[in-house]
Amino acid sequence: MNVVFRVWRQRDPEDPGGFVRYPVDDLAPDTTLLEALDRLNNTLVARGEPPVAFDSDCREGICGACGIVVDGRPHGPLPRTTTCLVPMRAFRDGAIVTLEPFRTGAFPVLRDLVVDRRALDRVMQAGGYVSVRAGSAPEANMLPIARAAVERALDAAECIGCGACVAACPNGSASLFVGAKVSHLARLPQGQPERERRALSLVEAADREGFGACSSHGECEAVCPKGIGLDVIAQLNRDHLLATLARR
Ligand code: SF4
Ligand code: FES
């Protein structure tokens, strides 16, 4: 199949940038979008032109490094699928496919499709650690946790920190990401000692980094490749309110 990539090219954060069209031909339908970009980059390098910069690492949907806005949707057209796993058969033959970086105030564009997402790392860092009194070896297995609680905690732990939720939110909110981090540990007994402090620190850090407030649009849930649900934002709001009241 043949496509035309309409790619955002931007040399550096100061460059105003703009779209450039590149035809890419003879792609197998199972080729992934990133492999198609690799093909394009081989051609550009052979012509002595700068390759298109984009992020990737695992290319298996588990690290959160990739993230391109494809035809206006963070990660592309397929639900619960990271950019790295989008196959070219998701587009029609001859399509013009528009590729842009995540656009939101807290993620400045560094080059082409690469943005600086370290704000999410700093928020996560502010959450700190859990204190674990491991004691003697058997103790870790002597803390019974209900299966349902484990499942709900692991659902929240699926967040890979890709930032698509922020890119999709009209308000640039990181509430789905922060909610996932709060809920993961709040749903386990191990997360209780620091529960209040963690909720306060994460929200303060998110505010400091310039993420907006949740405006309940739900765009974040719609684009999250890991299916993180809005229930984590409800948990975040509840924990943050209780922690604020307890601090008074
Ligand atoms: S909540 Fe979903 S969209 Fe947001 S960072 Fe985590 S995995 Fe990505
Ligand atoms: S490259 Fe790791 S999730 Fe896409």
Descriptive terms for the model:
248 residues; alpha+beta; 5-stranded mixed beta sheet; 8 helices; binds iron/sulfur cluster; binds FE2/S2 (inorganic) cluster
Topology, element by element:
Blueprint: E1 3-9, E2 18-24, H1 33-46, E3 69-70, E4 73-74, E5 96-100, E6 109-111, E7 114-115, H2 118-126, H3 147-157, H4 164-168, H5 175-186, H6 195-208, H7 219-223, H8 231-247
Parallel strand pairs: 1-5
Antiparallel strand pairs: 1-2, 3-4, 3-5, 6-7
The structure holds iron/sulfur cluster (SF4) and FE2/S2 (inorganic) cluster.
FE2/S2 (inorganic) cluster is lined by residues 56-59, 61-66, 82-84.
Radius of gyration: 20 Å
Query: What is bound: which ligands?
Result: iron/sulfur cluster, FE2/S2 (inorganic) cluster
What is the mean predicted local confidence, pLDDT?
95
Distance between the terminal alpha carbons, to the nearest Å?
63 Å
Question: Could you spell the SSE succession in H and E letters?
Answer: EEHEEEEEHHHHHHH
Strand content: 5-15%
Q: State the low-pLDDT regions, or none.
A: none
Describe the overall structure.
The structure is a single chain. α2 (118-126) runs antiparallel to α6, α5 packs antiparallel against α6 and α5 crosses α8. The chain has 8 helices and 7 strands. It has 248 residues and is α+β, with helices and mostly antiparallel strands. The termini are far apart. The strands form 2 sheets. It has a 5-stranded mixed sheet with strand order 2-1-5-3-4.
